[in-house]
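Here is the promised in-class demo. Please do not try to memorize the tokens; focus on the logic of going from shape to residues.
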């Protein structure tokens, strides 16, 4: 692990009128960690992801990427510094094919990219096709996205996030909308694909998850959010055993029918 954290959030705060969606958030993420953010609905997980990726500006506080202050950077500038993300609801061009979506994502991750002219050079196509194979999406390469079921779109959104060789990858609920039967297969595919596409150094992953079976199996560390604050942060079993986490986070998750 490098001495400088890949990601450091310092006293991050975000208000929406009277609603405090993030309050005094301090999180360091070291290279290669797989940090899972848990918390009931409205706890502030997506707000955190949106701030790190430049989609939301914090009301106050600082975000450092490998020591560089990116707090006021735009999403595009953050992407070009090696941060990629997937969304709760995949952000895809439905009329375009799977490969065209991949090429567009690859192109947008590069400096001086023009969104309307995605790269179609042999090297870009080869990289995208390799990623599609690793995500078990090769059979869909030439299909328009509008024809694909939700679970496949979810995987495509994550594959697109990997096109630009990110050093930090944020996944917002990678298994939401995926059936209980398929959730482990989906996560195994995602983790394997991430590991096989990292270059010299391991990709650092921050993912939001409601399913505690997934949290236990795939997280190296867990941060529990409640009402915009981080109420516990540490090894998965320690955080999941924390009485406040059981009361405010996993208790409500159980009530919603998830498997904790
Ligand atoms: N654009 C916005 N405008 C107003 N309020 C917002 C906005 N985005 C988030 N909020 C509020 O901020 C709080 C945190 O929301 P956030 O989406 O970050 O929670 P979450 O933990 O990701 O929830 P979920 O698990 O349901 O996705 C909630 O009270 C939410 O209503």
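The designed amino acids, position by position:
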């Amino acid at each position: 692990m490098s001495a400088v954290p890949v990601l450091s959030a310092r006293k991050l705060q975000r208000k929406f009128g009277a609603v405090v969606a993030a309050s005094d958030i301090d999180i360091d993420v070291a290279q290669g960690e797989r940090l899972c953010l848990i918390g009931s609905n409205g706890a502030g997980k997506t707000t955190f992801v949106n701030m790190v990726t430049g989609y939301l500006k914090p009301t106050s506080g600082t975000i450092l990427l490998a020591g560089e202050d990116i707090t006021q950077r735009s999403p595009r500038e953050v992407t070009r510094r090696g941060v990629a993300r997937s969304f709760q609801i995949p952000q895809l061009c439905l009329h375009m094919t799977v490969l065209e979506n991949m090429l567009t994502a690859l192109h947008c991750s590069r400096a001086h990219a023009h969104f309307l002219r995605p790269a179609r050079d042999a090297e870009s196509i080869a990289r995208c096709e390799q990623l599609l194979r690793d995500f078990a999406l090769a059979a869909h390469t030439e299909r328009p996205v509008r024809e694909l079921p939700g679970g496949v779109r979810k995987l495509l959104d994550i594959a697109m996030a990997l096109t630009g060789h990110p050093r930090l990858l944020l996944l917002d609920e990678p298994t939401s909308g995926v059936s209980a039967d398929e959730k482990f297969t989906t996560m195994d595919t995602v983790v394997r694909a991430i590991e096989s596409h990292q270059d010299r150094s391991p990709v650092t992953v921050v993912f939001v998850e409601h399913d505690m079976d997934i949290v236990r199996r795939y997280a190296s560390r867990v941060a529990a959010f409640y009402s915009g604050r981080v109420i516990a942060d540490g090894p998965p079993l320690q955080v999941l055993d924390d009485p406040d986490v059981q009361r405010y986070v996993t208790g409500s998750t159980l009530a919603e029918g998830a498997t904790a």
